[in-house]
């Protein structure tokens, strides 16, 4: 079965549509929020990032702090605002709560756009990546397609947007765990048949420094599950923050910064190279319009 591609997700738009969206943001300037003012007043921006989850987050054993791709993007935003950066590791179960409660100012994590998320949070419409799911399985499992997961146990992170298609489309028995490491341990221990997470993270697990530990496992298929735009999330009703961050992302694309940092940390860059080439002609992809707030 052919899965959702960039051309069929409904989020990819021509430059005129993206421009219209930005014009809409500008028209909401009167409703500007105070987040950026608060950030500048305290001299620090707090950004939620994934924990040590290569290739996006890398733990520095000397300091115990997480750096890497997402942290570098956060550092660039901080530099543009003239403030320092503080990163806060977030998980699937804490990230939305941290943003809504004001514990972080932005989320730069592997959180793809979904209708449900767009009803409770806001986001910069220009994606900074496009990521889908992959299924890591035992080489002896016989699982070679998403359809082969019917009746099988698929482990995902709690709150994962992969849970619904796995269950509804492919008939898998979905088991939510706290994070990717727990899911992989469950896979190795035999309590799940597949570990389903974002493709770059599982690719890194198999081919990174500790790849030899996973010689008996593989990605079931190269066909990614619901590839979706990865966006930077803000709180609702933060028009000025949203517009500022969107302008930064577009600049990252025009200058090639995203490709540079992706290559530096081993983040797959096929989409980023395509989006960068497009940006240099003045065209940008856009996530779907912000949904009506959930009551």
Automatic annotation (TrEMBL):
The keyword Transport applies. The keyword Nucleus does not apply. Pfam families: SBP_bac_3. InterPro entries: Bact_solute-bind_prot3, Solute-binding_3/MltF_N. Belongs to the bacterial solute-binding protein 3 family. Coiled coil: none annotated. Gene3D superfamilies: Periplasmic binding protein-like II (3.40.190.10). Residues 1-32 form the signal peptide. Keywords: Signal, Transport. Residues 44-269 form the Solute-binding protein family 3/N-terminal domain. This is Amino acid ABC transporter substrate-binding protein (PAAT family).
């Amino acid at each position: 079965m052919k899965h959702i591609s960039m051309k069929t997700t409904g989020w990819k738009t021509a430059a005129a549509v993206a421009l219209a969206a930005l014009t809409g943001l500008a028209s909401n300037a009167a409703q500007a929020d105070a987040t950026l003012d608060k950030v500048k007043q305290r001299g620090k921006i707090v950004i939620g990032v994934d924990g040590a989850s290569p290739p996006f987050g890398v733990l520095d054993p000397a300091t115990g702090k997480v750096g890497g791709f997402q942290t570098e993007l956060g550092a660039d935003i901080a530099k543009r605002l003239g403030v320092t950066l503080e990163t806060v590791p977030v998980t699937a179960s804490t990230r939305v709560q941290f943003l809504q409660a004001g514990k972080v100012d932005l989320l730069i994590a592997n959180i793809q756009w979904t209708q449900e998320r767009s009803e409770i949070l806001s986001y910069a419409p220009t994606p900074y990546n496009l990521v889908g799911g992959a299924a890591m399985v035992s080489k002896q499992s016989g699982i070679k397609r998403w359809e082969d997961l019917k009746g099988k146990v698929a482990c995902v992170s709690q709150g994962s947007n992969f849970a619904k298609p796995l269950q509804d489309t492919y008939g898998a028995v979905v088991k939510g765990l706290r994070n990717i490491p727990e899911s992989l341990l469950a896979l190795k221990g035999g309590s799940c048949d597949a570990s389903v997470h974002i493709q770059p993270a599982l690719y890194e697990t198999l081919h990174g420094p500790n790849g030899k530990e996973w010689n008996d496992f593989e990605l079931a298929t190269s066909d990614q599950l619901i590839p979706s735009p990865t966006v930077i999330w803000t709180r609702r009703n933060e028009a000025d923050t949203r517009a500022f961050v969107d302008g930064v992302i577009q600049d990252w694309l025009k200058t090639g910064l995203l490709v540079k940092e992706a290559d530096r940390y081993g983040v797959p860059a096929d989409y980023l190279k395509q989006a960068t080439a497009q940006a240099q002609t003045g065209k940008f992809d856009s996530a779907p319009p912000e949904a009506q707030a959930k009551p």
